[in-house]
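Board work, copied verbatim: tRNA (N6-threonylcarbamoyladenosine(37)-N6)-methyltransferase TrmO
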Amino acid sequence: MLENGTPAQVTCLPVGRVAGGREEVRDDDWGSEAAVIRLDARRFTPDAVAGLDAFSHLEVVYHFDRVPVEKIETGARHPRGNPDWPQVGIFAQRGKNRPNRLGVSRCRLIKVDGLDLHVRGLDAVDGTPVLDIKPYMAEFGPQGQVVQPEWATELMREYY
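↓ predict structure ↓
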């Protein structure tokens, strides 16, 4: 917060972009998608990914850059517009029309080739700005039992 109580603006520079993989935005069947996260060679050297190849999975934070600002949701809606599912708030779903248009995905790391990270199962399309990459560590997974509503299980049935 700034001194006058207004929220401080946060600025992120992409660390890279998604190259290849799916070109059109579509909700399901991401599990077989192969793509490359190409890190920005103007900012990084291969030292930035030293040791990353010892991990099987990545957590990737990216920007839903194709969502127009006027399509951002801040209230409740039916996930995917499906009236059979309950209206839930934008923070109770993982839709792309989020207030800051941020996506988070876990994907398999296939190989590291210089500044190219070859991945499978990343649910971001070709050209998507990547804001951060972290190795997935089992200890950062949920602690205890995971609970979710039936509509969420149904929605995700074909996602990967």
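The longest strand covers residues 102-113.
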